[in-house]
Amino acid sequence: MAQMGLNFIVTLIKVLILLGVLLGLGAYLTWFERKLAGHIQARMGPKLVGPFGLLQPLADGIKLLTKESIIPRNADKPVYYLAVVLSLAPSLMLFSVIPFGPGFELLGYKIEPVVSDVNIALILIFAMGSLAVYGTIFSGWASNSKYAFIGSLRKSAVIIAYEVILGFSVLGVVLLSGSMSTVGIVEAQIKSGVWYILYQPVAFVLFLFCMLAESGRVPFDIQEAEAELVTGYNVEYGGMRFGIFPLAEWYLNVMALSALAVILFFGGWSGPHIFGPFSPYLWFLLKMFSLVFFVLWLHWTLPRFQARDITEIAWKILLPIALANVIITAIAIYIL
C-alpha cells in the first residue's frame, strides 16, 4: 500500500512538472517563431518588451487574459466551451507516453522520465491525436458562423486523410522493433546500434507530411486561411479562449509529434556521452527542437496548398507510397 501511494505521488509530480514545462515552452515558442520569422523576412521581431523581447509572451498572455470574450449570438454554449477543452487536453495527453530519457535513481527510488510506459503507447498517441480534431469541429459548429464551420470541415477532411497515412508510416518501425511501446522502440534502436531513419527514410518523409497536416502548419493550414476564412474555425473566440487553439495546435502538437519522430526514427535519447550524466536528456531535447525549428522554418517559407490539392496528395500519392513501404519492409524482414 505504501509503495502504491509513493508511485501515485511520483506520477502526480511528473504530471505537474510536465504541465508547467509544456505550457511555458508553448508560450515561448511564440516568441521564438516571431523572432525566426523576423530574421527570415529581414526584420527584428519582438525586441521592446524585456531584453531581446523575452517578456513578450508574458505580455501577450496578460493581454489575452484581460480582453473581453464575447460569445456569438445563438451559439451552442456547452459545445462552445467544450471545444476549448477538447483542443488543449489531447495535445497535453500526447506527452504522457513520451520518454525523455532513460530511468535514473533518486534517493534510492527508480524514476522513469515518462508519465506512463505502456505497451500500446502508439495506439494511445493516435487516439489522442484523433480526439484533438473534435475541438476544431465543435468550435466551428458551436460558433454559429459560416467561416468557422467551413474551417472546421476543412480540418476534418485533412485529419481523415492524414491519420490513415500516419498509421501506415509508423508500421515499418513497429515491424522492425517488434514493439508499440515508445520506450521499447528506443531501446530496440540502441540495442541494434542503428537509428530507424536509415531503414525507413520514406516513412520519415511521410511522417513529416502528416505532422504538418495534423498540426495545421503551412502548407496545410487551410482550416484557418486568413485571406478566405478570417482565421477560420476559431474566428468567434476571444481572449484566452482564442489563444488556447494555436497554443494547442501549432505548438504543443508540433512538440509532441517532433518528440514522437525522434523516438521512432532518431534513436530517442541515444547519442555520445559528451554532456556527462545529462547527455541522454540533452540529446533528446536537441533532436526534438531541431525538428520543431524545421517545422517553423517551413511555415515562413512555403506557400499554402489548396484544400483540393491537400486531400488529393494524401489519397492518390502518399497513401499508396505508405502501403508500398509497409509491404516492402515486411518482405525484407521476412527474408533477412
Give structural attributes.
two-stranded antiparallel ribbon; 336 residues; mainly alpha
SSE string: HHHEEHHHHHHHH
Strand content: under 5%
List the uncertain runs.
none
Radius of gyration: 21 Å
Question: How many DSSP-defined strands?
Answer: 2
Biggest sheet architecture? 2 strands, antiparallel
Strand order in the largest sheet: 1-2
Distance between the termini: 48 Å
Number of helices: 11
Structural category:
mainly alpha
What does this structure look like?
This protein has 336 residues and is mainly α. The protein has one domain. The chain is globular. The protein starts with a helix and ends with a helix.
How are the elements arranged and paired?
Elements: H1 2-40, H2 56-66, H3 77-93, E1 104-106, E2 109-111, H4 121-142, H5 146-177, H6 182-192, H7 201-214, H8 226-229, H9 239-265, H10 279-299, H11 307-335
Task: Briefly say what this structure is.
This protein is mainly α.
